[in-house]
Amino acid sequence: MLQSKPRNNHLNPFFEPESVAVIGSFKEGVFGGYVVVKSLLEAGYKGEIYPVNPGSYREVLGLKVYPSPKEIPTSADVALLMINARHVPGVMEACADAGIKSIILVADGFAERDAEGARLQNEVVHLAKSLGIRIIGPNTAGIANAMNGFNPCPYDAGYYRFKKGTVAICSQTGMINPQAYPYRDLRYGIGKICDFGNKCDLDECDFLEYVENDSDTQVISVHVETVRDGKRFLEVCKKVALKKPLMILKLGVTEAGARASASHTGSLAIDDEIFDAACRQTGALRLDQFSELFDMPRFFASQPLPRGNRFGMVSYTGAVGVAALDEGARHGLVRARLSKESSRMLEDMFSGLGHVPVDIGPMIPSVKDFSAVYAKILTAVLNDENVDCLFNVIWADAKGRNTKAYVEGYEALGENGHKPVATWVYGPSVTMVRDLTKQLESRGFPVFAEPERCIKALGLAYRYAKGRSERM
Q: Which CATH number describes the domain made up of 12-299?
């Protein structure tokens, strides 16, 4: 049985701290200690916050500023360091003297910078080991845990709370953190976020072992530029993927990308073909684009896994149907053949509807009450015994005439709940497309920006379900 909180994991103090020391400047701005303290307060963090700075600061946002980690009343569970890189070793020693054993090293200027930075990073690693300190970073935007309001974001995101959810995401870039992604505006929730930066100590394997037994986490997406311990990575991914959908994005596929990766985090990229084979071996699902780190998890977080690879489709256009068949073949999906009962019922509604893709475009001009028939079409296709999942294409007309019918149709699908649905909405009005997308996603149905992304989501879900069944 899953535990509510993982036990005896190095990341516990980072994600579940009862107290935090914020070490840096508290000058108001878009980055720094002031922003961290404000973010924690606004996010609803209930633990103790100890601002630390040896200068002239006496108070920040109503909290006392301490001149040293050794001066705070109790030993903090974790400390954020936003200081000049050359001062890091000395402050680490002060943290150790104060009993602080977990550090988020936001500071940059290490291996990602130059040879001198790499030397300093090695010094920090050796010092941390001698002091018994664990590090996330350096060169990181930090972490966030929406479940307990622990959002020590060092950059001002303009918002501080976001919807709680079951998705956990980690990366080697701050582009996944709140200041870079609009989590507040998502219709699905996020649980835990972690940017490992240069990952001089803790890395994605530690994160995976943490969320493996975290009952708040049901879906995991990971971005890696490098893999430090290939054997451990394989073992951990294989273990985690048996329990939860695990999606991995690896950039640096080309030679130019690999060089860029080295300059970004100061490490070398792993061979792409080897990595691809590792994903197949472990059951992890490989992603191809950065946006998929956010797109694909929401599908797994909101939709059931398909029982097979037969996809049904309802559409306004035959051209998208052809494209869907081509894309489906790339992901192991096949076009469903409707049962005789379903086909006959649809043909009775309108000639030509009784096969996949179910093209409702020609029917629309002759239908007097679209609301009365749309839900019947959707439920007939999804409930068909020969259909394992549904790709639905919606035309959002400029006046929103059919919006009510669409919403009622999806409410009817929600009563089914045992087969996944992926949706693409298009139309001449960006406003109408956004409005309809919001309404559908608020009812638990993910909407994708492209039809190919819909098919890929269904294909990945099938691949995961099939692979996990074979490995168990």
A: 3.40.50.261
Helix runs in 198-248, H state only:
204-212, 230-241
The answer to whether 12-299 and 304-471 have equal CATH topology is: yes
Count how many Cα atoms sit within 13 Å of the Cα of residue 265 in the half-sphere of its side chain: 30
Helices (H), 350-450: 370-383, 403-414, 430-441
CB 267 within 8 A of CB 227: no
β-sheet bridge partners, residue 219: 167
pLDDT band at 398 (very low <50, low <70, confident <90, very high): very high
pLDDT tens for 289-339 read 999 999 999 999 999 999 999 999 999 988 898 899 999 999 999 999 999
Q: Are 84 and 24 in contact (CB under 8 A)?
A: no
Single pTM value for the model: 0.92
Residue 266 above 80 pLDDT?
no
Distances (CA, A) of 344 to 168, 380, 382, 438: 45, 11, 15, 34
CATH code: domain 304-471 is 3.40.50.261
Residue 172 CA from chain centroid, whole number: 13
Domain locations along the chain: 12-299, 304-471
